[in-house]
Structures are given as structure tokens and as C-alpha cells.
Amino acid sequence: MLLFQRIMYGVVFLLLFLVCLINIQQVSFNLYFAQFTSPLIVLLFIAFIIGVLGGVLAVIPKLYRQARKIKELKEETKDLTQAAKTEGIKEIKET
User: Which is deepest, 19, 20, 52, 83, by most CB within 10 Å?
Assistant: First the structure.
């Protein structure tokens, strides 16, 4: 399995390398206040990074909500377990 994984990493790296070699032509990128000229692969990479950052920023609030909910549920489970022990219930089934 490890050999297959390394082969796949090699194939992906080779494909990305070939894409980099193919997309070396100069392109201009116009904004309202500036104009940039750079290789196409650089602009593609910048667009990819901006997309990844946007995706991560979109997920962060949900992760914090889930972590807070998990913490609340663990505290509730702890309180219920302690209450069951004080009332004399000997066996607590966990689901």
C-alpha cells in the first residue's frame, strides 16, 4: 500500500510539473489600479491559494461550533454519570 501511495504521489508531482512547463507564457492581469505581467502558472497558483484560503475561512466557524458542542456534551455526560453514581445506579450503559 505504501508503494502504491508513493507511486501516486510521483505521478501527481510529474503531472503538476508538466503543467508548469506548459504554462510558462507571459500573460497580463489587469486590475482597476494596476497591471501585472507574469507567467500563467504564477497566476494560476495565486488563484489556487486564494481559493484554498477562502475554503478554509468558510469552514472555521463550523469547526468552532462543533468543538463547543462537543465540550458541552462531554460536560453533560460527566454530570449525568456523577448523578447516576450518587443515586446508586451501579451500571451505566454507554451508547
Answer: 20
Q: Which residues contact 19 (CB under 8 A, 6 or more apart)?
A: 41
DSSP string for residues in 30-71: E-SS-EEEEEHHHHHHHHHHHHHHHHHHHHHHHHHHHHHHHH
- The domain of 66 spans 19-84
Does residue 1 form part of some domain? no
Copy the grid coordinates of residue 31: 486590475
Q: Is 28 helix (H, G, I), strand (E, B) or coil?
A: strand
Tell me the whole-structure pTM to 2 decimals.
0.62
The string of pLDDT tens digits covering residues 5-24 is: 999 999 998 998 888 888 88
First CA to last CA distance, the chain: 34
- The tally of domains found in the chain comes to 1
